[in-house]
Amino acid sequence: MENNIVTSDRDVVIDVINVKKKFKSYQDKASTFKERFIRPSRGKHEDVMVLKGISFQVRRGEALGIIGKNGCGKSTTLKLLTRILYPNEGEIRIKGRVSSLIELGAGFHPDMTGRENIYINASIFGITRKEIDERLNDIIRFSELEDFIDNPVRTYSSGMYMRLAFAVAINVNADVLLIDEILAVGDTAFQKKCFEKLEDIKEKGTTIVIVSHSMDQMYRICDRMIWIEDGFIEEEGIPKVVGEEYLAAMEGKRLERKQEEKRQREEGGKTDSEEQDGYLKKLPTFCWEGATQNGNGKIRLTDGYVLDAEGKKTSCISMRKKFEVVYHYESDLIGIKLAFVISFTKDNGIYCFGAGSISNSDRENVFLAERNGTVKVSFKENNLQDGIYFIDIGIHGVDGTLFHYIYGALKIEVKGDKENEQVGIVNMPRRWESKGQIISQEY
Amino acid sequence: MVQKLKEIYAYRDMIDGLVRRELRGRYKGSVLGFLWTYINPLIQVVIYSAVFSVVFKVRIEKFYLYLIIGMMPWTFFTTSVQGGAVCIRAQSEMIKKIYFPREVIPIAHVTSAFINMLFSFIIVFLAVLVSGFGMRLEAMIYLPLIMLEEYLFALGIAFIVSAVTVYFRDMEQIIGLLMMAWIYATPIMYTIDYVPEKYRFLSLLNPMTSIVEIYHQILYYRMIPAAGYLVRAGISVIIVFIAGVFVFEKLNRNFAEEM
Lengths: 443, 259
Prior knowledge:
The structure holds two protein chains of two kinds.
Chain A: E1 12-26, H1 33-38, E2 45-59, E3 63-67, H2 74-82, E4 89-94, E5 98-101, H3 114-123, H4 129-143, H5 158-170, E6 176-180, H6 188-203, E7 207-211, H7 215-221, E8 224-229, E9 232-237, H8 239-268, H9 272-276, E10 292-294, E11 299-307, E12 313-314, E13 316-318, E14 323-331, E15 337-346, E16 351-356, E17 367-368, E18 372-379, E19 387-397, E20 402-415, E21 430-434, E22 437-441
Parallel strand pairs in A: 3-7, 3-8, 5-6, 6-7, 13-20
Antiparallel strand pairs in A: 1-2, 1-4, 8-9, 10-20, 11-12, 11-14, 14-18, 15-16, 15-17, 15-19, 19-20, 21-22
Chain B: H1 2-10, H2 12-26, H3 36-55, H4 63-90, H5 92-97, H6 104-131, H7 137-140, H8 142-167, H9 171-184, H10 200-205, H11 207-219, H12 227-251, H13 255-258
Helix pairs in contact in B: 2-6, 3-4, 4-6, 4-8, 4-9, 4-11, 6-8, 8-11, 8-12, 11-12
């Protein structure tokens, strides 16, 4: 079994190996005899794959954050780690005692005192009375419930309840601590204390896995972040980087949805008068099929394309070569001042570059609208690295009026014959120097 | 396996807590409280001895003693199994929310029923005293052994029925019917001599026959339990317990999803 070199690493505390998890989605669950045998069709279910094969490792003293939109499988992952659920395929190995802040206070008995509940709550983490005796004072002090600890828990406010539960879960000397969206407990002061405690136990070697929607909390605690999307790990790495990418993607999707809604609204309720007003109806045919648009439509983009260095229409441009983007438009307004804009976004949602035709130094040098116009923007050099990019193109008035803007209007591929070792989004021409020896790379 | 045992041992305080809660909770709020532990089987004994010695004229010496000795272990067994069928479902909230070795629940349930039986043995000993039968020390040393065997047997069955009921709720009702029949298949209200010779082997296939008979042999017949009964009881206990552990191990992984 131990054929994987990394798994033999003593420092790996959590090892998740190609885990798949499916849930049965019952239309109508049959669980009694009659239902199962008399109407077998009722028990029919569809399997829903929630996790489609994820692998990751967490080391001793490391804090891992898991992000993703609702239903992506992040809470399922946490439940698998706690062993409330088990994977259909794959394996999860965890070393040591696991404590979880998933369902704080599950198993609290309202009629018993806070003190009694500390023992009961600890017992469901597999901790004996003796072990708790040693830590009882720490727990009570941490919960700040000294004056109430011998009152029944049912008399507690929800904040007090949470404080007690958190104090127990965090003081059980676990090797692994799993946290789900609960750092919103208590007031700010208590939250701060929780964070300090988390940092403290992390330093002492406790491994932490957190699921949360609060990026700020995650950035603060986590050393590494995993973004789960549709049951796969979409991205893994530095929290700030993964987090920003995730947020950008979510924002992009939100805009897309908004555009879609708007388009459907407009398509649904179009009238002749609206058409005469020049309202945007369908996406122009030149666009990439996933494009979305916005604007009042008084000026409309009718065509757009990319020309390569030889002046031929293309969807594929080379690194370090010149290229041009051409806009065609028709306008109901003639002679007004226009601003043309363009931007590039990588297929993973990273916004690479954006520019407008208005220059800050000479605000009088602007294009004026014609009935049928053409604008060409030439790029001296393509500094993007290879990959798939989307180009947004748009027309504004100089006063900011949005006439027509198309998100992801053109899809292009950048191909590079890479002579050198380089990664990232942009290509920065460079020269290396040492003792008079020079390595020049496109410099 | 060793790991599992270690883990369950680490959770001994949880088992302890659950047992206490069950013992305290069962008759909580009732006027007679814990006395019901004694009243229930006693009333049963009164009814059965009335029916069987007055109406059916069963000729068994000190029939009430015979009945009591069989009835207490039977009550333990039937409580373990019938309550065992629903014990996992009853804790569904905890199972859906937190991890702990799920074995803890049936263990706690059977243990609390077992402790009830230990208390009810006060009545058994009182009945022995009243009857003037006396006790035989060489036989009495087998009593803890048969109690342990019955505990493991009941636990094995509780493992199976508690896990199966999660997936198949009718199990609870089926168990009710089964236990109703099972008490008549066990020599509690009659002695094994009443069973016609040619059907006796059938009666002996029932593990509870061996178990209850050993109680009778120790306390009623005041003899060292017969080797045949000890062997049959031992083998069935081992088989049922191992089967229970395996079935539970197989089924417990999906508890959270099925509830």
